[in-house]
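Chapter review. Work through the record for D-alanyl-D-alanine carboxypeptidase-like core domain-containing protein before attempting the end-of-chapter questions.
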Amino acid sequence: MAMTPLFVPFAPAGAQAGTQAGTQAGTQAGTQVRRDPANLGELRKEAERSAKELEEATKALEKRRATIAGSEKELKTKLTSLQGLEQRLSVMRQPVSQMVELLYEQPIAANNVTPFLSGNADERTLRALSDVTQIVAIRQQAVEQTSALYKETERLAGEAQELRAGNLLAEAQLAAEVDTLRQRSDKIVKSLTAALVKMGIKIDKVGRAALGCNPLRAATAGDYPNGLIPKGMLCPLQQKGFSLRADATIAFVSLNEAYRKRFGKSMCVTDAYRSLAEQQSVYYRRPGFAAVPGRSNHGLGLAVDLCGGVERSGSAEFVWMEKNSKRYGWFHPSWAYTGPFEPWHWEYDPKIDSLL
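Structure tokens for D-alanyl-D-alanine carboxypeptidase-like core domain-containing protein:
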């Protein structure tokens, strides 16, 4: 059974293998990482590519498992056929044995053959010879059928063994490929986590990749209702007290580093993810300037409200954001230019980011 490997080693454009990227993210000084926000962006995109590969691999694995299930069904059918042939062989051996016993019990003596050869055989002698001829013919037929059944049995046994060996090989390869993909994804996320920690993201005390900051699980946050995403599914920003969905946070950190390089300071954030209760509070306190609770992109962990100059349309900070934010998947929505006019509101779109 030919097996097609699911995993193809991947080296990101503009970088060495994932190991080197991880080493750079995990061992370089924090200031050096800060000077190269593209490094974080490349790690993020590599992690997202890994997620896509995992998704495609999962589909391939499911298809392969279906093939294995089909092979197992075919194997079961062959084994059933094999068992039936063995029963038939057992039945066919009985008349052959009985005919041999009959020949011994009713032998044709020489004195019966002599009259037959001289033409003086009586009815009893002729009947005995006829019986012998018939027994020999039946026996020959039984032997031929038995031989054919033996060959068919050997063929089915060989095919069953081949299917069994192929299934065992497929299962072993599946386990190896799944393990390789898992290790690769873990390594990428670990490298990305190290880079985030160096940039000021407080993930946890021991530096493990927190669930909420794992970009491979970013889409999982979308399984929760607007404003009801668990805290453990959100990734904190460098700005203390604020968080977003993992992919949005990682893209925002890259954007923030580019902004820091241009203006010498981090972006000022006044709001990010909003729980449903917070959306309700803002909606009643600022009517006309907040979405209906349960419909805000803040409740999806995909929007921020900014300050520090960005909130003023036409300012250097606002203009810079208009020119550069889409490079990191962030944009100023068209509705925020008109009604209500909200220059401080910016949103993240994974589709825009995937095209970069």
